[in-house]
Design a protein that fits this description.
Blueprint lengths: L1 E5 L6 H10 L3 E5 L10 E4 L5 H10 L2 H11 L4 E4 L1 H4 L4 E2 L5 E2 L6 E5 L11 E9 L14 E6 L1 E5 L5 E6 L3 E8 L2 E4 L7 H13 L4
Length: 207
């Protein structure tokens, strides 16, 4: 299994790479969009601000390549943390910014969504998920995953939400639309259940 990890200068590449290689995947750090087409899976990691992340993806030519591979070649994609947020149509961080647009919705600051707890949200939280979603196969309900974020994805359709966590308000923890997946938490930093989730992504086969 060949996995391309998108390098746009803001991702936690090393930890994602180590986690996938531990599971037996052959990883490629994709410094150029052309590298994406040579792999079976795409992982879009991310740490930082929505506006800057999108500017870097656009400047590197990654947005067009990702959309083409996902839409035309049904290439499975996993967005992690900021990588998940940038799957949205728009984000507020750094000013109103267009996202990749693979999953309709907007990314907004947690307190704007009603959260009265400390922002950013940093630490382990349990999640409730859709047990039919292939990303969560063989993972117990209310498993703990590691979160680091101050903004959250609010999808246009609740049908795109596959997991939530409670951080003063219900917060979207995972999304899916077809073969496009996203997790707000960091599976590569979430111990055994995180490795199981990454294995499920490797095992997933589009219909």
């Amino acid at each position: 299994m060949r996995v391309a990890i998108v390098n746009y200068g803001m991702g936690n590449l090393a930890s994602v790479c180590r986690a996938l290689e531990y599971l037996g995947a052959a990883t490629t750090i994709a410094d150029h969009p052309a590298a994406l087409s040579q792999c079976d899976r795409i992982v879009l990691p991310g740490v930082g601000a929505f506006g800057e992340g999108m500017a870097r993806l656009q400047a590197g030519g990654f947005v067009e390549a990702i959309c083409r591979l996902v839409k035309e070649d049904t290439r499975p994609l996993l967005g992690i943390c900021l990588g998940m947020q940038m799957l949205a149509e728009n984000g507020d961080e750094g000013g109103d910014t267009s996202g990749i647009g693979l999953i309709p919705g907007r990314v907004s600051r947690l307190d704007k969504l009603g959260c009265s707890l400390r922002v950013p949200h940093v630490g382990w939280n349990d999640i409730q998920f859709d047990a039919t979603d292939p990303l969560f196969a063989q993972i117990p309900q209310k498993s703990d995953f590691y979160f680091v974020h101050g903004f959250a994805f609010n999808p246009e359709s609740t049908g795109s939400v596959t997991a939530r966590t409670d951080y003063g308000v219900p917060v979207v923890a995972a999304v899916r639309q077809g073969h496009v997946f996203g997790t707000q938490f960091h599976p590569e930093k979430s111990s055994k259940v995180g490795r199981r989730l990454l294995q499920n992504f490797l095992d997933y086969r589009p219909c």
